[in-house]
Amino acid sequence: MQKIVLTGARGALGTSLRGPLSKMCAQLVSTDIRPAPEGLFDNETYVQADLAKFDKIAPLLEGADMVVHFGAIVDEKPFEDLLGPNFIGAYNVWEAAHRHGVRRVVYASSIHAVGLAATNAGIDTTEPHHPDTFYGLAKCFAEDMARMYWEKRGIEAVCLRIMSCTPEPQNIRALGTWLSHRDLIQLVTRAIDTPTVGYTVVYGVSNNTRCPVDNTKAAFLGYRPVDNAEEWAATLLAKAGTPDPHDVALTRLGGPFAAVPLGESGMAAIAALTAKTTTPTG
Protein backbone atom coordinates (compact mmCIF):
# COMPACT_ATOMS: atom_id res chain seq x y z
CA MET A 1 0.00 0.00 0.00
CA GLN A 2 1.39 3.37 -0.99
CA LYS A 3 -0.25 5.89 1.36
CA ILE A 4 -2.42 5.88 4.49
CA VAL A 5 -3.74 9.04 6.13
CA LEU A 6 -4.37 8.96 9.89
CA THR A 7 -6.50 11.69 11.47
CA GLY A 8 -6.55 12.22 15.22
CA ALA A 9 -2.90 11.17 15.33
CA ARG A 10 -2.23 12.96 18.63
CA GLY A 11 -5.08 11.30 20.50
CA ALA A 12 -4.52 8.31 22.78
CA LEU A 13 -5.71 5.80 20.19
CA GLY A 14 -4.17 7.57 17.23
CA THR A 15 -0.82 7.63 19.01
CA SER A 16 -0.94 3.84 19.49
CA LEU A 17 -1.76 3.34 15.79
CA ARG A 18 0.99 5.43 14.22
CA GLY A 19 3.70 2.78 14.52
CA PRO A 20 1.64 -0.17 13.23
CA LEU A 21 0.22 1.90 10.36
CA SER A 22 3.68 3.08 9.34
CA LYS A 23 4.58 -0.58 8.72
CA MET A 24 1.61 -1.10 6.39
CA CYS A 25 2.41 1.53 3.77
CA ALA A 26 5.17 3.37 1.98
CA GLN A 27 3.95 6.74 3.25
CA LEU A 28 1.99 7.55 6.41
CA VAL A 29 0.51 11.03 6.68
CA SER A 30 -0.54 11.81 10.26
CA THR A 31 -2.66 14.82 11.11
CA ASP A 32 -4.28 16.42 14.14
CA ILE A 33 -5.30 19.87 15.29
CA ARG A 34 -2.47 19.71 17.83
CA PRO A 35 1.21 20.33 17.00
CA ALA A 36 3.43 17.49 15.80
CA PRO A 37 4.65 14.91 18.32
CA GLU A 38 8.30 14.37 19.01
CA GLY A 39 9.87 11.66 16.91
CA LEU A 40 8.18 10.70 13.64
CA PHE A 41 8.63 7.33 11.96
CA ASP A 42 10.92 7.20 8.94
CA ASN A 43 8.07 7.12 6.42
CA GLU A 44 5.74 9.41 8.40
CA THR A 45 4.95 13.05 7.73
CA TYR A 46 2.85 15.18 10.04
CA VAL A 47 0.49 18.03 9.15
CA GLN A 48 -1.28 20.14 11.76
CA ALA A 49 -4.79 20.77 10.44
CA ASP A 50 -8.36 21.44 11.54
CA LEU A 51 -10.81 18.74 10.40
CA ALA A 52 -13.54 21.35 10.07
CA LYS A 53 -11.62 23.16 7.29
CA PHE A 54 -12.01 21.31 4.00
CA ASP A 55 -9.19 23.19 2.28
CA LYS A 56 -6.76 22.00 4.96
CA ILE A 57 -7.87 18.36 5.03
CA ALA A 58 -8.62 17.59 1.38
CA PRO A 59 -5.05 17.98 0.05
CA LEU A 60 -3.76 15.44 2.56
CA LEU A 61 -5.83 12.68 0.93
CA GLU A 62 -4.38 13.11 -2.54
CA GLY A 63 -2.88 9.80 -3.62
CA ALA A 64 -4.06 7.97 -0.49
CA ASP A 65 -5.22 4.37 -0.61
CA MET A 66 -7.03 4.54 2.71
CA VAL A 67 -7.93 6.96 5.49
CA VAL A 68 -7.99 5.88 9.14
CA HIS A 69 -10.27 8.55 10.57
CA PHE A 70 -9.85 8.84 14.35
CA GLY A 71 -10.03 12.63 14.63
CA ALA A 72 -12.86 14.11 16.75
CA ILE A 73 -13.73 15.57 20.12
CA VAL A 74 -13.99 12.40 22.21
CA ASP A 75 -16.60 13.44 24.74
CA GLU A 76 -20.12 14.75 25.03
CA LYS A 77 -20.31 18.50 24.49
CA PRO A 78 -22.97 20.99 23.44
CA PHE A 79 -23.98 20.37 19.83
CA GLU A 80 -22.35 23.59 18.66
CA ASP A 81 -18.97 22.43 19.99
CA LEU A 82 -19.18 19.10 18.18
CA LEU A 83 -20.53 20.45 14.89
CA GLY A 84 -17.16 21.39 13.40
CA PRO A 85 -14.82 18.53 14.33
CA ASN A 86 -17.30 15.66 14.63
CA PHE A 87 -19.99 16.37 12.02
CA ILE A 88 -18.41 18.67 9.43
CA GLY A 89 -15.02 17.02 9.94
CA ALA A 90 -16.46 13.61 9.05
CA TYR A 91 -18.12 15.04 5.93
CA ASN A 92 -14.84 16.66 4.91
CA VAL A 93 -13.00 13.34 5.18
CA TRP A 94 -15.52 11.41 3.08
CA GLU A 95 -15.92 14.13 0.48
CA ALA A 96 -12.16 14.52 0.15
CA ALA A 97 -11.88 10.73 -0.13
CA HIS A 98 -14.37 10.80 -2.98
CA ARG A 99 -12.61 13.61 -4.83
CA HIS A 100 -9.22 11.93 -4.57
CA GLY A 101 -10.35 8.38 -5.36
CA VAL A 102 -9.56 6.93 -1.94
CA ARG A 103 -10.51 3.27 -1.75
CA ARG A 104 -11.61 2.93 1.89
CA VAL A 105 -12.25 4.85 5.10
CA VAL A 106 -11.69 3.10 8.44
CA TYR A 107 -13.72 5.11 10.91
CA ALA A 108 -13.52 5.33 14.69
CA SER A 109 -17.21 5.15 15.45
CA SER A 110 -18.41 4.39 18.96
CA ILE A 111 -20.71 2.28 21.08
CA HIS A 112 -22.49 5.58 21.75
CA ALA A 113 -24.14 5.28 18.33
CA VAL A 114 -26.30 2.63 20.05
CA GLY A 115 -25.64 3.79 23.60
CA LEU A 116 -29.26 3.68 24.78
CA ALA A 117 -29.66 0.02 23.82
CA ALA A 118 -30.00 -2.27 26.83
CA THR A 119 -26.74 -3.83 28.00
CA ASN A 120 -28.36 -7.25 28.34
CA ALA A 121 -30.13 -7.21 24.94
CA GLY A 122 -27.33 -9.06 23.13
CA ILE A 123 -27.36 -6.74 20.11
CA ASP A 124 -25.39 -7.39 16.95
CA THR A 125 -23.99 -5.16 14.21
CA THR A 126 -27.42 -4.69 12.58
CA GLU A 127 -28.84 -2.86 15.62
CA PRO A 128 -30.59 0.38 14.56
CA HIS A 129 -29.03 3.62 15.74
CA HIS A 130 -29.94 4.54 19.30
CA PRO A 131 -27.58 7.37 20.29
CA ASP A 132 -27.18 8.42 23.90
CA THR A 133 -25.69 11.92 23.38
CA PHE A 134 -24.88 14.53 20.76
CA TYR A 135 -21.51 12.75 20.58
CA GLY A 136 -23.29 9.49 19.77
CA LEU A 137 -25.48 11.30 17.25
CA ALA A 138 -22.34 12.43 15.42
CA LYS A 139 -21.28 8.78 15.16
CA CYS A 140 -24.69 7.89 13.71
CA PHE A 141 -24.33 10.69 11.17
CA ALA A 142 -20.90 9.47 10.07
CA GLU A 143 -22.01 5.83 9.88
CA ASP A 144 -24.99 6.78 7.71
CA MET A 145 -22.74 8.93 5.53
CA ALA A 146 -20.27 6.06 5.21
CA ARG A 147 -23.04 3.77 4.00
CA MET A 148 -24.33 6.40 1.58
CA TYR A 149 -20.86 7.07 0.14
CA TRP A 150 -20.41 3.30 -0.35
CA GLU A 151 -23.77 2.84 -2.06
CA LYS A 152 -23.66 6.06 -4.11
CA ARG A 153 -19.95 6.58 -4.72
CA GLY A 154 -18.27 3.23 -4.11
CA ILE A 155 -16.02 4.18 -1.19
CA GLU A 156 -15.67 1.25 1.17
CA ALA A 157 -15.99 1.83 4.91
CA VAL A 158 -15.39 -0.08 8.11
CA CYS A 159 -17.05 1.61 11.10
CA LEU A 160 -15.45 0.51 14.35
CA ARG A 161 -17.91 0.93 17.22
CA ILE A 162 -15.19 1.29 19.83
CA MET A 163 -16.28 0.54 23.39
CA SER A 164 -13.83 1.12 26.30
CA CYS A 165 -10.28 1.31 24.95
CA THR A 166 -7.80 1.71 27.80
CA PRO A 167 -4.57 -0.06 28.83
CA GLU A 168 -6.54 -1.99 31.47
CA PRO A 169 -10.27 -2.22 32.31
CA GLN A 170 -11.09 0.64 34.65
CA ASN A 171 -14.48 -0.25 36.18
CA ILE A 172 -17.12 -2.97 36.35
CA ARG A 173 -18.79 -1.81 33.12
CA ALA A 174 -15.50 -2.43 31.31
CA LEU A 175 -15.63 -6.12 32.25
CA GLY A 176 -17.86 -6.36 29.18
CA THR A 177 -16.82 -3.36 27.11
CA TRP A 178 -13.01 -3.29 27.40
CA LEU A 179 -10.89 -3.08 24.25
CA SER A 180 -7.16 -3.51 24.79
CA HIS A 181 -4.71 -1.49 22.73
CA ARG A 182 -3.33 -4.73 21.32
CA ASP A 183 -6.78 -5.76 20.10
CA LEU A 184 -7.43 -2.24 18.75
CA ILE A 185 -4.33 -2.55 16.58
CA GLN A 186 -5.47 -5.95 15.34
CA LEU A 187 -8.95 -4.59 14.59
CA VAL A 188 -7.64 -1.64 12.56
CA THR A 189 -5.19 -3.92 10.75
CA ARG A 190 -8.00 -6.29 9.73
CA ALA A 191 -10.13 -3.33 8.64
CA ILE A 192 -7.29 -2.33 6.31
CA ASP A 193 -6.04 -5.66 4.97
CA THR A 194 -9.36 -7.45 4.39
CA PRO A 195 -9.65 -7.60 0.58
CA THR A 196 -13.22 -6.29 0.29
CA VAL A 197 -15.49 -4.86 2.99
CA GLY A 198 -18.23 -2.81 1.30
CA TYR A 199 -19.91 -1.08 4.22
CA THR A 200 -19.20 -2.89 7.47
CA VAL A 201 -19.93 -2.23 11.14
CA VAL A 202 -17.92 -4.04 13.82
CA TYR A 203 -17.75 -3.58 17.58
CA GLY A 204 -14.37 -2.62 18.97
CA VAL A 205 -14.26 -4.94 21.97
CA SER A 206 -11.84 -7.52 23.30
CA ASN A 207 -12.53 -11.21 23.89
CA ASN A 208 -14.31 -10.51 27.16
CA THR A 209 -16.21 -13.28 28.91
CA ARG A 210 -18.96 -10.75 29.67
CA CYS A 211 -19.05 -9.08 26.23
CA PRO A 212 -22.56 -7.63 25.66
CA VAL A 213 -22.47 -7.41 21.84
CA ASP A 214 -22.20 -9.85 18.94
CA ASN A 215 -19.68 -9.47 16.09
CA THR A 216 -20.66 -12.66 14.24
CA LYS A 217 -21.85 -10.82 11.12
CA ALA A 218 -18.46 -9.10 10.82
CA ALA A 219 -16.50 -12.35 11.25
CA PHE A 220 -15.26 -12.15 7.65
CA LEU A 221 -12.88 -9.38 8.76
CA GLY A 222 -10.85 -12.00 10.57
CA TYR A 223 -10.78 -9.98 13.79
CA ARG A 224 -10.07 -12.42 16.62
CA PRO A 225 -9.40 -10.50 19.86
CA VAL A 226 -7.09 -12.14 22.36
CA ASP A 227 -7.40 -10.12 25.58
CA ASN A 228 -10.08 -10.65 28.23
CA ALA A 229 -11.15 -8.27 31.00
CA GLU A 230 -12.10 -11.21 33.21
CA GLU A 231 -8.54 -11.22 34.52
CA TRP A 232 -9.49 -8.08 36.50
CA ALA A 233 -13.02 -9.19 37.45
CA ALA A 234 -12.47 -10.29 41.04
CA THR A 235 -10.65 -7.09 41.98
CA LEU A 236 -13.06 -4.71 40.25
CA LEU A 237 -16.20 -6.44 41.54
CA ALA A 238 -14.90 -6.52 45.11
CA LYS A 239 -14.25 -2.78 45.07
CA ALA A 240 -17.47 -1.80 43.32
CA GLY A 241 -19.91 -2.76 46.05
CA THR A 242 -23.52 -3.65 45.26
CA PRO A 243 -24.62 -2.20 41.89
CA ASP A 244 -27.95 -0.43 41.49
CA PRO A 245 -30.08 -2.44 39.00
CA HIS A 246 -31.81 0.80 37.97
CA ASP A 247 -28.59 2.69 37.24
CA VAL A 248 -28.72 3.67 33.56
CA ALA A 249 -24.93 3.90 33.57
CA LEU A 250 -24.89 0.11 34.03
CA THR A 251 -28.06 -0.97 32.22
CA ARG A 252 -27.41 0.82 28.90
CA LEU A 253 -24.51 0.11 26.57
CA GLY A 254 -23.40 3.73 26.61
CA GLY A 255 -22.67 3.53 30.32
CA PRO A 256 -22.32 6.94 31.98
CA PHE A 257 -22.84 8.66 28.60
CA ALA A 258 -26.38 7.25 28.64
CA ALA A 259 -27.01 8.84 32.04
CA VAL A 260 -25.61 12.36 31.61
CA PRO A 261 -27.78 15.27 30.42
CA LEU A 262 -27.27 16.23 26.79
CA GLY A 263 -24.24 18.44 26.37
CA GLU A 264 -22.58 17.46 29.64
CA SER A 265 -19.31 15.53 29.81
CA GLY A 266 -19.60 11.77 29.66
CA MET A 267 -15.89 11.35 30.29
CA ALA A 268 -16.26 13.09 33.65
CA ALA A 269 -19.02 10.63 34.53
CA ILE A 270 -16.82 7.70 33.51
CA ALA A 271 -14.04 9.06 35.70
CA ALA A 272 -16.46 9.20 38.62
CA LEU A 273 -17.54 5.59 38.01
CA THR A 274 -13.91 4.52 37.79
CA ALA A 275 -13.06 6.30 41.05
CA LYS A 276 -15.99 4.57 42.75
CA THR A 277 -14.80 1.20 41.44
CA THR A 278 -11.14 1.56 42.20
CA THR A 279 -11.32 3.21 45.61
CA PRO A 280 -11.99 0.79 48.51
CA THR A 281 -14.94 1.72 50.72
CA GLY A 282 -15.64 1.19 54.40
UniProtKB/TrEMBL annotation:
The keyword Oxidoreductase applies. Keywords: NAD, Oxidoreductase. The keyword Lipid metabolism does not apply. Residues 4-163 form the NAD-dependent epimerase/dehydratase domain. Pfam families: Epimerase. SUPFAM superfamilies: NAD(P)-binding Rossmann-fold domains. GO terms for molecular function: oxidoreductase activity. Belongs to the NAD(P)-dependent epimerase/dehydratase family. This is Epimerase/dehydratase. It comes from Ketogulonicigenium robustum. The lineage of its organism: Bacteria, Pseudomonadati, Pseudomonadota, Alphaproteobacteria, Rhodobacterales.
